Amino acid sequence: MGEPYERVWTVRFSDTDPFGIAHYPRIVDALHETSDMFMQEIGFPFWEISQERGFGLPLVEMNFEFERPVEAGDDVTVELTPSLGTRSVRFEYVARCDGEVAFSGYEQRVCAHQGGDGSMDLPDDLREAMEPYADD
Amino acid sequence: MGEPYERVWTVRFSDTDPFGIAHYPRIVDALHETSDMFMQEIGFPFWEISQERGFGLPLVEMNFEFERPVEAGDDVTVELTPSLGTRSVRFEYVARCDGEVAFSGYEQRVCAHQGGDGSMDLPDDLREAMEPYADD
Amino acid sequence: MGEPYERVWTVRFSDTDPFGIAHYPRIVDALHETSDMFMQEIGFPFWEISQERGFGLPLVEMNFEFERPVEAGDDVTVELTPSLGTRSVRFEYVARCDGEVAFSGYEQRVCAHQGGDGSMDLPDDLREAMEPYADD
Amino acid sequence: MGEPYERVWTVRFSDTDPFGIAHYPRIVDALHETSDMFMQEIGFPFWEISQERGFGLPLVEMNFEFERPVEAGDDVTVELTPSLGTRSVRFEYVARCDGEVAFSGYEQRVCAHQGGDGSMDLPDDLREAMEPYADD
């Protein structure tokens, strides 16, 4: 039984639009930052796996739904649950503010050799590092 | 028979990652900029409809697939085709570099009163302004 | 004797360039985020003072020197020291990584009525909230 | 007698804050984009000089003054004038909207070997390419 990875994103004044709500591209920044924080947390930071292990997890698809706007000062709890495939991983996100879902969706990522020569199996140690956070 | 709206996005050095390819959040910036340019082109800039007409086209869903990376200096042709609903519009995107699809997807937008009190029909003049670009 | 406000900025993969170092605009994002965090910390978040108090601290000048590049994964300690004027405040920054200065500089901000009708004295309660962090 | 390099930056809705004016970090993005466009215009794009010539023009200082806010839809004319040193170049910027200066300042850049082993003379061909835009 996994527990999702969780971080709190505080919406900043500089993220907000003329109606006081966060611009969509800034929400996407926060989602990508969450994936980066997760990979660092499990000991496989994006900047290390590419340089030291020769592989990456490039994004092949993203799908997000926006249910409620968020405002400057909001503390948004972003949960990330990895869903493990053989040669891919899906990062599933749910972001809540005051207990209500604000946005949710997923990033589909493949495991690929650096340099673009095709997909590969998720390394066993990466798989093991993600499993405690996975749904099952 | 509509023709999509088209703009060229030149990938900049400051958009690129350690492998020389554009970071995903920077691609999302370019997509949102395209929606903004389109609305300006048809005479309904986002900044005017909200202030002068009291409505907006907030994003409720986005879905993108990334097929090929793009690099600094690439001229990426981004096409936007509006698909018109009664109370919503879907902006469909196809981005090509050297004739090959680099990324594609859509933004689903609803037509909503400013201030969040529910959806409304797309105004007739906005619908007419979008139709020349619509698929049919 | 004040102690500067301090936060740690972790450089992310998505901040970095083809040489693995942070793009300058991403450093500026981190500096602005620091000013926003500071204002929240002292109880005067940017989003509140403008809406509830009718004033702001718009930037009139920024000056930064970049001494050493920072890389993905670096934990950069950013210190902010407010230097208080009568109708203005200067936010002075020093950012260090592994004890070495990476970048430093200042943002000169004026205290201004919202809506652009000129500068005003820093409110006393804001001044008092900043003083514990000020150099003297 | 040089003529500065000039580009028009259209402020987008997604650049603007709750008061309808551009966030400062978005202005810095536009300035950096201008430097990138200039280098491409003169035939020395940032992404080529680093990879093919083994040098770069890293930023060592930036100084900007913000005189008037800019709003979504504003067409901001950004002028760049290179001021040539022996081992450095200063990019001087003046940005105007409706003929009035909105912001201005400079980026001080050094000419450096890629990889960080010190400064070097500006290559002659780069100097020649910049001269037509230089103040004199």
What does this structure look like?
Chains A, B, C, D: Residues 117-136 are annotated as: Disordered. Chains A, B, C, D: It holds the Pfam family 4HBT_2. 4 copies of one chain form a homotetramer. Chain A is built from 3 helices and 7 strands, in the order βααββββββα. In chain A, 24% of the residues lie in helices and 36% in strands. In chain A, strand 5 and strand 6 form a beta hairpin. In chain A, strands 1-4-5-6-3 form a 5-stranded antiparallel β-sheet, covered by helices on one side. A two-stranded antiparallel sheet of chain A has the order 2-7. Chain A has helices at 24-41, 46-53, 124-130, and strands spanning 5-10, 55-56, 59-66, 75-84, 88-97, 100-110, 112-113. Chains in contact: A-B, A-C, A-D, B-C, B-D, C-D. The interface between A and B is medium-sized, with 24 and 24 residues. Strand 3 of chain A pairs antiparallel with strand 3 (59-66) of chain B, so a sheet runs across the interface.
